[in-house]
């Protein structure tokens, strides 16, 4: 009945442990104290009270759970939800664009983390057309002021929605009947970045009301921000004639989030809730760079893979300036209706809702060859982790560009994506007295989820192409990576002129695809409590029917004009057990075991035959990408055992060992130098295109990338945690995680046998002080190197070097109702450094991604926020 690879022996050990302690003992007496009665009710206000509630949530849970609570209405421990998650042992956060965006748990990749909002899914799409369509949630969409608390489930249980091999994060918003009537919060902050050198506004607010009978309440919360974000760095150009690119990425981030929650409780036993959530994100951006081609004879030293790492340029260098500009926006809307009915002999609760998201990315390109080749004379040192330039001229303005220029006619695109889920959850709980079993829980869940990716090429009327002086498109200058100064683009004008020559769009069949999943789940779970042992034991059955629409591709490279559909299905039994044993009044032994799954990323499931790089004017990067709707999910058996000592109401120390045995993997395999019957255009605009990897005159030369199932892989590690608070107002917490996440290197095209996003070592150090009027906290988060995998996309697979962030926050209460706040993130301005580390046997075509070549580096930015907050 159970999945074949479930470790029954370990499950039997845990069952035996329960039985030996009286699992089959006498019926629980009615007067016996339950665990829930021991939970201390805490009015959360301040750092210490929040930490105490977090301990309560962890201590009295039957599962392996970590909790983060808001310190007050509108006041989360960090200004970024992702950063707060990063304080939890075993959790690592990706900060690719300056914010905590994606979360990985216990060595598993971010795509193996399930995120729920108040227990339900939240639809989201990407604002960046270079990112894959995956299942991870972008936490930068969610303002911390809207969040009341976070729960991170590291163990599974049968009534928990499946999908998280790493773990499940539940984000809880506030509800009106839980707050005092007429609770009010209003805050405003100025957000300053040390690279953008802009002070930007953030405003947020919350109002909660309920009637005198406390039977009806309504809460409205919202947040708005407009941030000028800038990321300076140096990027590799994928082996393009040795080109390296000092670059600056500028983004106008406009975020609006609104949550409306209503509750109606007509009787003590019946409660209805309705929640409306809107998340809007504007992300217009421009990536400006100068690609420096050093020319023949400039190389003075190579690394083991033959890449040049030392150059001396003398009259051979050329420069190509370009700006990729994108008008990007994304919105997510959720309507969720829930209910709870408590009868004498059962509890029935459920929810029904719909969540949908849409994104739109309009792309344009402005690129020109620059004059004054003598500007590039000098040296380029690529022997270290960061490329170092010493050139004759590293400061440019619009005068370096042609006197007139316009948008490139080959580049405009329109890429809309969508994501939607309609769901129904039904849950029953029946109190029983069967030995140590005190309740039986059972339920049903159905979700219909559809994802659509689309791509459209512009119908360009060349006669309408605007031509302007370069100074109109680049009216100023901006600091960039490597100590360069580049012409600064006028994003709005660039988009407007590209649209002016565009007369509609034509769908690209290679870019269109859908994935629709119908997911059904049934579960039954028993809660038990006897003789100092408590927990749950259950099984969840899941069934998935999946289909993908696409335009098929013939052997001669011609796309069909009608859609084809591929279908598949799979089902799994997912047993689980959680056991908590009271070794003493303040010491707990905790163990769990479960079979878990994570569904494949949508990018891997799209049956689309995509000819990537076919018309982008970049040489030797043409890839035929194919997904596979028939992929089996990631599957793993996981278990852990830990001991927790709560040596005071504010303090604990714990040690946990965990293991995950991954039996089914999903990987992307690539074959280079393949002939598929389609000739690649020869771009006369690009004199540095070079010779085809298949040989001179071979225009049919492709990398073929396909999604497949692999096998094997394991994660093994430990978590150590300690926290305490003192009567003098000081307190601290610290945790360390070791996660050894290994997989056969054949699962990855880079031939590096390490899980994506997995850091072997992670630690957090937090110290704080708090009194009646003032609180301050200093926190340091550090993670060791980890692999980022984005192949076959432009950025490829590479290793991000170790990264640490020192953060500080403080609050001064001017009155009982008025606070002044200060936050500082990444105070040491830690750089993001990414090196090529692909194995020499890789099938990936980019030679820069070998032997620690410095492929990407981005300058660290500190961000400071000063604000005031009003609370009643």
From TrEMBL:
Q: Does the keyword Zinc-finger apply?
A: no
Question: Where is it chiefly localized?
Answer: membrane
Q: Which domain of life is it from?
A: Bacteria
Question: Pfam families recorded for this chain?
Answer: Plug, TonB_dep_Rec_b-barrel
Protein keywords: Cell outer membrane, Membrane, Signal, TonB box, Transmembrane, Transmembrane beta strand, Transport
User: Which segments constitute the TonB-dependent receptor-like beta-barrel domain?
Assistant: 327-827
The family database entries (InterPro entries) matched by this protein are listed as: Beta-barrel_TonB (IPR000531), Beta-barrel_TonB_sf (IPR036942), Plug_dom (IPR012910), Plug_dom_sf (IPR037066), TonB-dep_rcpt-like (IPR039426), TonB_rcpt_bac (IPR010104)
| Annotated TonB-dependent receptor plug domain residues | 61-168
Family according to the record: Belongs to the TonB-dependent receptor family.
- Protein's UniProt name: Iron complex outermembrane recepter protein
Organism whose genome encodes this protein: Pseudoalteromonas translucida KMM 520
């Amino acid at each position: 009945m159970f999945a074949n690879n479930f470790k029954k022996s370990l499950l039997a050990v845990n069952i035996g442990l329960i039985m030996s302690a009286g699992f089959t003992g006498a019926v629980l007496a009615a007067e016996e104290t339950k665990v829930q009665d021991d939970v201390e009710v805490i009015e959360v206000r301040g750092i210490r009270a929040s930490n105490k509630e977090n301990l309560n949530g962890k201590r009295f849970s039957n599962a392996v759970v970590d909790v983060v609570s808001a310190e007050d209405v509108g006041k989360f421990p960090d200004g970024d939800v992702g950063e707060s998650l990063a304080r939890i042992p075993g959790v690592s956060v990706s900060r690719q664009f300056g914010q905590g965006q994606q979360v990985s748990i216990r060595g598993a990749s971010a795509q193996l983390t399930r995120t729920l909002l108040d227990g339900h899914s939240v639809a989201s799409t990407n604002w960046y057309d270079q990112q894959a369509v995956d299942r991870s949630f972008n936490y930068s969409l969610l303002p911390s002021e809207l969040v009341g608390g976070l729960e991170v489930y590291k163990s599974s249980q049968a009534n928990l929605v499946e999908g998280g091999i790493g773990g499940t994060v539940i984000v809880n918003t506030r509800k009106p009947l839980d707050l005092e009537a007429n609770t009010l919060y209003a805050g405003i902050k100025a957000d300053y970045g040390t690279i953008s050198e802009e002070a930007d506004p953030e405003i947020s607010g919350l109002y909660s009301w309920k009637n005198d009978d406390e039977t009806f309440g309504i809460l409205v919360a919202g947040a708005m921000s407009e941030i000028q974000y800038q990321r300076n760095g140096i990027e590799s150009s994928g082996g393009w004639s040795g080109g390296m690119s000092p670059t600056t990425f500028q983004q106008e981030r406009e975020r609006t989030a609104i949550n409306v929650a209503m509750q109606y409780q007509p009787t003590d036993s019946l409660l209805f809730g309705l929640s409306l959530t809107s998340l809007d994100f504007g992300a217009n951006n421009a990536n400006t760079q100068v690609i420096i081609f050093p020319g023949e004879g400039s190389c003075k030293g190579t690394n083991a893979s033959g890449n040049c790492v030392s150059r001396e340029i003398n009259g051979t260098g050329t420069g190509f300036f370009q700006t990729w500009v994108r008008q990007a926006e994304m919105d997510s809307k959720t309507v969720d209706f829930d209910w709870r009915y408590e009868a004498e002999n059962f509890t029935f609760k459920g929810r029904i809702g719909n969540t949908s998201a849409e994104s739109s990315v309009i792309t344009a390109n402005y690129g020109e060859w620059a004059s004054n080749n003598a500007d590039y004379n000098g040296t380029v040192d690529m022997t270290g982790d960061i490329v170092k330039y010493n050139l004759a001229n590293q400061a440019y303005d619009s005068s370096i560009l042609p006197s007139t220029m316009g948008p490139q006619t080959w580049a405009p695109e329109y890429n809309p994506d969508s994501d939607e889920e309609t769901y129904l959850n039904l849950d029953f709980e029946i109190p029983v007295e069967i030995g140590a079993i005190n309740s039986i829980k059972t339920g049903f869940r159905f979700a219909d989820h559809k994802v659509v990716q689309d791509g459209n090429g512009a119908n360009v009327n060349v006669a309408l192409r605007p031509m302007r002086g370069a100074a109109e498109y680049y009216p100023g200058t901006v600091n960039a990576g490597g100590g360069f100064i580049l012409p600064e683009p006028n994003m709005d004008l660039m988009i407007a002129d590209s649209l002016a020559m565009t007369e509609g769009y034509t769908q690209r069949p290679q870019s269109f695809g859908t994935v629709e999943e119908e997911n059904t789940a049934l579960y039954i779970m028993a809660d038990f409590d006897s003789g100092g042992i408590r927990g749950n034991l259950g099984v969840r059955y899941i069934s998935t029917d999946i289909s993908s629409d696409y335009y098929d591709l013939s052997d001669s490279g011609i796309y069909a004009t009608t859609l084809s559909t591929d279908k598949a299905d799979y089902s799994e039994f997912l047993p689980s057990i959680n056991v908590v044993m009271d070794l003493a009044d303040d010491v707990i032994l905790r163990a769990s075991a479960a079979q878990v799954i994570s569904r494949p990323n949508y990018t891997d499931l799209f049956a689309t035959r995509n000819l990537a790089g076919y018309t982008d004017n970049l040489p030797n990067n043409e890839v035929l990408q194919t997904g596979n709707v028939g992929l089996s999910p990631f599957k793993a058996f996981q278990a852990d055992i830990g001991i927790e000592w709560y040596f005071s109401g504010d303090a604990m120390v714990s040690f946990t060992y965990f293991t995950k045995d991954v039996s089914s993997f999903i990987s992307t395999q690539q074959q280079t130098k393949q002939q598929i019957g389609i000739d690649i255009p020869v771009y006369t605009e690009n004199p540095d295109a070079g010779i085809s990897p298949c040989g001179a005159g071979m225009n049919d030369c492709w990398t073929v990338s396909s999604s497949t199932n692999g096998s094997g892989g394991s994660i093994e590690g430990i978590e150590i945690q300690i926290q305490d608070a003192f009567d003098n107002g000081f307190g601290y917490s610290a945790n360390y995680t070791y996660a050894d996440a290994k997989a056969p290197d054949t699962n990855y095209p880079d031939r590096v046998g390490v899980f994506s996003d997995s850091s072997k070592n992670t630690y957090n150090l937090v110290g704080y002080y708090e009194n009646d009027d003032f609180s301050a906290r200093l926190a340091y988060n550090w993670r060791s190197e980890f692999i980022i995998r984005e192949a076959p996309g432009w950025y490829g697979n590479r290793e991000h070097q170790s990264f640490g962030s020192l953060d500080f926050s403080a609050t001064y209460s001017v009155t009982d109702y008025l606070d002044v706040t200060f936050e500082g993130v990444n105070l040491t301005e830690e750089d993001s450094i990414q090196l090529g580390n692909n194995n020499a046997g890789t099938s990936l075509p980019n030679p820069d991604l070998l032997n620690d070549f410095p492929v990407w580096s981005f300058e660290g930015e500190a961000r400071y926020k000063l604000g005031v907050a009003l609370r009643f």
